[in-house]
Amino acid sequence: MPRNTKVSPRRVLIAKPGLDGHDRGAKVVARALRDAGFEVIYAGLRQTPEEIVRAALEEDVDLIGLSILSGAHMALFPKVLALLKKEKAADIPVFAGGIIPDEDARRLKKAGIRAIFGPGTSLEEIVSTAQRLARSAA
Amino acid sequence: MKRAGPMPPAARAIVNGDRRVLARVISQVENGDPAAAPVTRVLYPRTGNKPVVGVTGPLGVGKSSLINQLVARLRELDRTVAVVAVDPSSPYSGGSVLGDRIRFDRRADDAGVFFRSMASRGEVGGVAAATREVTRLLDAAGFDVILVETVGSGQVDLAVRDVATTSVVVLVPHLGDEVQTLKAGLFEIADVFCVNKADLPGADVARRDLVELVALGSDRSGWRPKIVSTSTTQPSGIEDLWSAIAAHEEFLDRSGARRADERRRVSSEVVELVREKVGRELAGRLEREPALRHWVDQVVERTLDPHTVADRLAKTIGRR
Ligand code: B12
Ligand SMILES: Nc1nc2c(ncn2[C@@H]2O[C@H](COP(=O)(O)OP(=O)(O)O)[C@@H](O)[C@H]2O)c(=O)[nH]1
Ligand SMILES: [Mg+2]
After folding, report:
1. Rounded to an integer, what distance in angstroms lies between the CA atom of residue B201 and that of residue B64?
2. Is A34–B26 a contact, with Cβ atoms under 8 angstroms apart?
3. Interface ipTM
C-alpha cells in the first residue's frame, strides 16, 4: 500500500521514571499498544524525567505513558509535566499507571496527568484511552 | 546547482539546530506528508558530505550496544552524532515496539547527540523507505556522523547499501551456519566486519573463519573488508571499529569511489520513487477503470484467465 494513503501510525513513548524495577506492566501496555497499531518507543527502566522529556521530543511522540509501582509517582510525574512545560511541549499528553492510591491519582490528574490506571485495568480500556488522548498528525 | 528557492522557516530552523522542528519534519517525511517536500528540497544541496554508517546483522548480535559505544567514542573525538534505529513493524497491526533506545546511555544534556527510532512500515530489506531522506535531514542539521541501525532480520539487510556510505556487518561467535547462508550477500555490502561479543568463547574461531572468507572474496573496487573484534560488555575494540570505518571513508575519498557509490544510491532512490509514484497513479486509474469489475467476474467464471485480463488492463490504462 502506498505510504500516504493510509493513516500514519501514532507514536507513544512508554517510560519508567525513577529506580522502580517493576517493568511487567509497562511491557504489557507497550505490546497492547503495538497490537493496536501504535509505534511504541520503549525507553526501558530507570529514566530520569529529563531523559524522558528529551526522548519524547526527539522521537516526536503523540503521547507519553509513565509507569511506576514503587511509590515515587508524586515526585516524578509532576517533574515530567514541569519539564514538558519548560520545553514548550505541554501539548504532548501524559497518561500513567502502576500502584497509585486514589487520593494521589486525583491530585496528579489535577496537575495534568490525563488518565491513571491501576492493577487489573483491561488493556482495551488502556488502548481506547490512548487512542482518544494521542495528538493527531498536524 | 540551481538555487532551491527561498528557505522555508522549518528548513532554517533545522539548519540552526532546532531539534523539535527536526523531529517534527522527520515525522512528516515518515508519514509521506507533503508539508516536508519544500523543506527537504531546499536542504538537499547542503547534504551529501557526511559519513552515513550502516550497522546491520542478525537480531541480538549487539548492534544497538555497539552504536551506543561508537557514539561515546565519537563524542570523545569531539564529533557530533545522530542515530537512526530501524525496527520492524508488525505486519498485522502496523504497530511496533521500538526498543533500541534501551541500550542508549543517558545523555540528557548532550546537544551533540540525537537519537531517533524508526519503524520499517512494511519495507523489507531492513531500512524504512524514508530512512535515506531522514539521514539527509540529520546531515543538514549539522551532525558530523550519522549512524543507522537496521532491522536485524537474520538475513543481511542489503538495502543498507542504499543508505550508508560505510556498511558494518555485525556477527557473533557460533553463528557458523548463519554465516554460510549470509555468505552470498556478505561481500555485496560489508565494508567492515565486526565480530562482537569477543568476550565469549569461540570469538577467535569466528574471526579466523571471516579472515578466510574475506581472503576468498575478490576485492570490490579496491577495498578489502576490514575485520575487527569488539566487546561492549567488557569494552574492547571500539576504537578499532571506528578506525576501520574511518579508513573506509578515507578510501572512498582517495579512490573516487564515493562519487560512484553515491551515483548508484541516487539512481536506486530515483527508480524507487518513480516506481512508487507510477504505481500509485496506476492503482488509481485501475480503480476507476469501468471494465475492471466485468473482467474480474469473467476470470471468476473461468471465461477469461488472469493474464489475459492483466494484459488488456495494462493496455487500456497505459493509453490514458
Ligand atoms: C511481580 C512483582 C514484583 C516482581 C517484578 C518483576 C518485573 N520485572 O516486573 C519482583 C519480584 C522483581 C518484585 C520486586 C519488588 N517488589 Co514487587 N510486586 C510485584 C507484584 C506482585 C505484581 C506486579 C506486576 O507485575 N503486575 C502485573 C502487571 C501487568 O500489572 P501492573 O504493573 O499493575 O500494570 C497494570 C496497571 O497498573 C496499568 N499500568 C501499569 N503501568 C502502566 C503505564 C501506563 C502508561 C498505563 C496507561 C497503564 C499502566 O496497566 C497494567 C495492566 O492493567 C506487585 C503487587 C501487585 N499486585 O501489583 C508487587 C509490588 C508492586 N511490589 C512491591 C515491592 C515493595 C517490591 C520490592 C521493593 C520488594 C522488596 N522488598 O524487595 C521489590 C522491588 C523491585 C525493584 N527493583 O523495584 C510493592 C510496592 C509497594 C508500594 N508501591 O508501596 C507491591 C505493590 C506489593 C505490595 N503489595 O507490597 N515485585
Ligand atoms: N557477552 C556480550 N553480550 C553482549 C555484547 N554486546 C551486546 N551484548 C548483549 O546482547 C544482547 C543484545 O544486544 P543489542 O545491542 O540489543 O543487540 P541488537 O539486537 O543487535 O541491537 C543484550 O543482552 C546485550 O547486553 C558483548 O560484547 N558481549
Ligand atoms: Mg537493536
Report:
1. 21
2. no
3. 0.92
